[in-house]
Amino acid sequence: MKLKTLEISGFKSFANRTKIEFMPGITGVVGPNGSGKSNIIESIRWVMGETSAKGLRGDKMADVIFGGTNTRAPLNRAEVSITFDNTDHYLNSEYSEIRITRTLYRSGESKYQINGQTVRLRDVHELFMDSGLGRESFSIISQGRVESIFSAKPIERRSIIEDVAGVYKYKQNKEQAEKELQETVDNLHRVQDILFELENRIEPLAQQASRASDYLTTKEKFDQLDQARLVIELDDLFLDQTKIAKQLLELEQQNSNGKQQLETQNHALSELKVQRIALETLRDKYQAQIVTLTQKVEQLTGEKRLEAERMANRTQSGRDLKMRLEQVQQILTELQNNQKQRQIEFEKEDANVHTAQATLETTTEHADRQVLEEHEAVISEVRNKLVDAMQALTSAKNEQTYLTKSNQQNDANLERLNLKLSDLKAKNAAQATSISEKETRYQTLSQQYTIQKNEIEKAKVAGQKLEHDQKIARKNWFDALEKQERATSRLQSLQRLSQSYDGYFQGVKNLMRAKNQFTGIQGVVAELIQLDASNALAIETALGGALQSVVVDNEQTAKNAIQYLTRQRLGRVTFLPVSTIQSRHLSAQQIQLAQNQAGFIGVAADLVTVASTQRAIIQNLLGTTLIVGNLDHAQMLANRLQHRVRVITLDGQVINAGGSMVGGANRQTGNGLLAQQTEIDQLTLELKQLSQTTTTYEAQTRQLEQQLQEVTQNFQALQQAATACNEQVQAAAGELHLAQNVANQMSRDFEAMQFEIKQSSDGTIDHATRVTENRQQIQMHDQAVHRLQTQLDELTQQRTDLQTKVVAAEQSATALQIKLATVQAGRDNARVRLDDINERIQAETSLAESLHEQLAALDSNQTDRQSEISISLDKLETDLAQVKETVAEKGTELTKVVQSIEIAEANLQLVQDSQTKNLQALSDVKARQAELAQKIKQNESLLLQTYETTYDDSKQTMQTIDTTDLKTQLKLLKLTLNDIGTVNIGAIDEYQEVKTRYDFLNQQQADLLDAQNNLQTTMSEMDQEVITRFKTTFDAIAEHFTYIFEKMFGGGKAVLELTDPEHLLTTGVDIKAQPPGKKFQQMSLLSGGEKALTAISLLFAILEVRPVPFAVLDETEAALDEANVDRFAEYLHEVNERTQFIVITHRKGTMNHADVLYGVTMQEPGISTMVSVNLETIDS
Questions:
Q1: Of 1130, 1132, 1125, whose CA–CA distance to 1149 is shortest?
Q2: Is the dihedral of CA 879, 885, 891, 892 positive or negative?
Q3: Residue 1129 lies in a domain
Q4: What is the CATH number of the domain that holds 35?
Q5: Burial of 111 by CB count in 10 Å (0-12 exposed, 13-18 middle, 19+ buried)?
Q6: Highest mean pLDDT among 145-154, 594-603, 872-881
Q7: pLDDT confidence of residue 669
Q8: Which among 962, 976, 1004, 1156 counts the fewest CB atoms within 10 Å?
Q9: Which residue numbers delimit the SMC hinge domain (predicted)?
Q10: What is the pLDDT of residue 812?
């Protein structure tokens, strides 16, 4: 294996990353003092696992990080990497090249890496273990290491040989084995103590377990028989249940039959009642028909009388109409005759016009007709107006007829609407009252719901608070239970120790275990006194061994006990007879001085509570001891009392009378006897308080649980009530909404009806106005017709006159034009008269037709209505007679149905009475069945809860049990259980547990004894291996040391000697040297150079015995003269084939033999820089 490279970054003065490559042979590192040469060696040691900051010339590990200069800031990290060529696998690793990196941050974080994998420091140490390499091996040798060899004591030099011998791991293993052996011995003692305790417990527990086992056996047999008793009772109950079920089935069948009969009777009765209702309905209906028909007969009779009166009136009207019709027909005949005459005249005049026009057209074309045409237009316009006026007159007459009829209908409709409006007003008022009631109910329910919601919220908050309080109370309860359990466990443990007198002297322990054999033993001092825990250590220190003194009544009791202990050889005990021990007290002056001293607690005897009969004992033991706060107080008080009184501090430091002092503390953390007894008293008191606290918390928890349950039930009830109330609110809201909708609809209907009435009223008023206006219109139109007719006649005359004037004005026209005008005028006049006659004929014809229709209708109505009334009256009288006959028939049927109903009701009552008796019997049987079911349930529940079994399983088990005289057997077994009395069932498991533990501990004791023997054997074997390796290595090093010494000194002699050859495990190593020309002498008597060269010779001898791949020498030869330096360098040159040397030196002789030189300089203040020179290249 070879050292290949070293990379340094941020380590001490190497601020910049520096890489050093190491070649085979000798590598020299030179440089002025303070340049940082030694930092290279320290970096190698650091990266190989050095953990001592002082070993690296620092106070703390962070000091290895570059701390900065005046020009360079400090760095926050130091890192060193070293690389080995491990091709030969010198190091126990699979890698052929190993690179170790160590990094340290100023924050304190660090890490190790091997080939880039993060590892532990331990992994780095293990890599170099027993390889001869490492931070403390002889592969790194400094000048200080050389000095330590010749200045070391012989026993210290022994470690050099041990390191070379590689026994470090054996010594380490031996140390571990010694620790394990001590632990084994301690465990063995503890096991033996526990076994002693268990031996005292196991026999009583065996007896208790035997009684408990007998009890369980008897109890098991009792339980089996009791189960059999329950099964037998269940069998009887099941048999009764079967009988009851049969009875129940029969009664239910009877009940079913009775129900069917009831249904049949009820159905028949219902049908009869339906028939009765139907007949009553028909009777009422027919009676109503009789009333109606009677009213109609009376009405028709009245109408018949009225129609006779009307008939007389219509006869007179008929005569009037006939007279009027005859007049119209006469006028019509005259008009028709006149029409024929006028038609002949018109046709004649029209032929003349055509003749004249034809003649005129041929004779003149330029006659001026404009004025005449304009006059013709006026005539045409007046004629049109006349036609319009006649049509308007006809329309007004028709409108008058319509308005009259419409007015009559409107009056009737108005009367009907007023009646409906009155009814609607009443309904509206009733609806308003209903809405008011519904609104009041809705508001009331809403308020109730709001109140209930508030109550629910309050109950919810109260429930949450109670739940929170209950959780806290439960937690407090459980915490108290846990504390109580821990205190109980601790108290029981301490009581067991106290009862077994564990920790007491053997004699005290044996005596107190046998104290029942004596009378007058009051107890051990430690268990008779009580005191505050803060004073326990001081009092225990004051009493010392007297804590285990036994207080007895008198000297005779002490004598008897001493004879017993002597005879049985059970140990020695100090006795304190109450009858002879006298009190001891301090003087009043001493107490006064003590009370005035700072830190004074009290006289020890006054700090202890004890029975009055034992007070003298305590005064004797503690009456002259003072307790103070600390050692300073004790010294001042002791000086003040001139060291005549023993003073003890609370932490157990003692100043005895006379001035001697006892102090310090043990590693043992366990409580002393007094502290143990005090703790028992405190735990007993604490358990009483905890019991009260637990009971209080439990009661509080139960109370809160009950309150929470009540609040929860109340909350659920409130929720249910609120839900029901909400449903009522919603229903009321729906009803209110529906009522409001109905009211709104009624309001709309009311408004619509009012509007309709208003329209009808307005229509009536409007009709009246229109009738008046229409009459005026008729009068006006009639006047207009006469006026227009007059105007038309005048215009016609004017036209004739105009025509004459036109003819006169056109004197230059021919006679034909005059004739044409005359003919046309004659034709027009004839046409007008003809039209007038035609219109009058049409009007008279219409009037005649109307008169004919009225006359025909009058005759028809007169005849038809009279006939209709007679026919209707006959029919009504016939119907009335039939209905009266039907009413009589239905009355007979109704009487029969009523009689049938009375019979059916009587039969139904009989069936109901029978059914009531049947139901009572059924109820009694069901009650008996429920009673049996309850008893069965109770017995099954007893089986399940008491014996955790079922009827079926018990039934199968019962088959193997003798149930003869069951009651007697149960009675005898119960007497047996009473005789056994109260037993500790837990003793069985406890005995088994203790027995198992006892057997286990016995086995543990055997195993621990075996382990003790094995460890002792192993340690002996390791000692032998160390002796062998040490002796072999020592002999080899001694031989090589003698040879190398002679070579290094050029003569002389040196030997290594063992200071105690008989004890190779502890012997030291001494060096005796005889430089040339001197005698043998101890190394301490040699000169400085001789010491250094002798030590170097020893180091070289070590390297001969335990070669290493590389060695680092840090100014090892500094103390040698030039000649010895040359011999030192020559030796290095001789052995560099097998060992690679890195030498830090100032000596030229060493430099001359180096293969590679590295120079370390500080080109920048405080920062080291490397410069390399290959000397072989320079030489070549």
A1: 1125
A2: negative
A3: yes
A4: 3.40.50.300
A5: middle
A6: 594-603
A7: 44
A8: 962
A9: 519-638
A10: 47
State the pLDDT confidence band at 1180, using cuts at 50, 70 and 90: very low
DSSP 533: G
Task: Answer yes or no: do 498 and 644 share one domain.
Answer: yes
- pLDDT tens column, 452-468: 888 888 888 888 888 77
Query: Burial, 306: exposed, middle or buried (Cβ in 10 Å; 0-12, 13-18, 19+)?
Result: exposed
Q: What is the CATH number of the domain that holds 242?
A: 1.10.287
Q: CA-CA distance, 910 to 320, in Å (whole number)?
A: 86
Q: Are residues 239 and 114 in the same domain?
A: no
Average pLDDT over residues 782-803: 74
Strand order in the sheet with 26-30: 140-142, 1110-1114, 1140-1144, 26-30, 1156-1164, 1167-1174
Continuous segment of H or E residues that includes residue 79: strand 77-85
- 133 and 257 part of one domain: no
pLDDT in tens, 972-1003: 877 887 777 777 777 787 778 777 767 877 88
Residues 529 and 626 in one domain: yes
Nearest-5° angle of CA 33, CA 35, CA 37? 90
Q: Is residue 878 part of a domain?
A: yes
Structure tokens at 830: 């004839």
- C-beta separation of 19 from 30 below 8 A: no
Question: How far apart, in whole angstroms, are the C-alpha atoms of residue 1055 and residue 1073?
Answer: 6
CA nearest to 135, candidates 161, 111, 109, 100 = 100
- Summarize pLDDT for 84-122 with one digit per residue, the tens: 998 988 888 888 999 999 999 988 889 999 999 999 988
Q: Is residue 740 part of a domain?
A: no
Residues in CB range of 1010: below 8 A, 6 or more apart: none
In sequence order, what E strands does 86-125 have? 97-105, 110-114, 117-119
| Residues annotated in a binding site | 32-39
Q: Which residue has the tokens 């501990």?
A: 1001
| Mean pLDDT, rounded, for 745-768 | 71
Q: Which amino acid is at 498?
A: S
The H-or-E segment that residue 140 falls in is strand 140-142
What distance in Å separates the CA atoms of residue 23 and residue 1140, rounded to the nearest whole number?
8
**Residue 246 Cα distances to 232, 252, 430, 530, 833, angstroms:** 21, 10, 63, 79, 123
pLDDT-derived band of residue 1127, with 50, 70 and 90 as boundaries?
confident
Task: Assess if residue 707 is contained within a domain.
Answer: no
Task: Say which DSSP state 1117 is in.
Answer: T
**pLDDT (tens digit, 9 = 90+) per residue, 715-734?**
778 878 887 888 787 777 77
Identify the domain containing residue 240 by its residue range.
Answer: 228-353+846-942
**pLDDT tens readout for residues 531-571:** 887 888 898 888 888 888 999 999 999 999 999 888 888 88
Per DSSP, what are the bridge partners of residue 1170?
Answer: 1160
Query: What residue numbers does the annotated binding site for ATP cover?
Result: 32-39
Per-residue pLDDT tens digits for 273-321: 777 777 777 776 776 677 677 767 766 776 666 666 656 655 655 666 5
Q: Do 93 and 234 share a domain, yes or no?
A: no
pTM of the model: 0.39
Question: Do 242 and 108 share a structural domain?
Answer: no
Same domain, 135 and 232: no
Phi-psi region of 544 (alpha: psi -120 to 50; beta: other; left: phi over 0): left
**46: nearest Cα among 149, 115, 121, 148:** 121
Q: What is the dihedral of CA 667, 673, 679, 683, to 10 degrees?
A: 130
DSSP 75: P
What is the three-class DSSP state of 577?
strand
Amino acid letter, residue 618: I
Under 8 Å CB-to-CB from 884, ≥6 apart: which residues? 290
Per-residue pLDDT averaged across 704-711, rounded? 82
Helix (H) or strand (E) holding 661: strand 661-662
Same domain, 529 and 644: yes
pLDDT at 625: 94
Q: What is the count of structural domains for the chain?
A: 3
**CATH number, domain with residue 639:** 1.20.1060.20
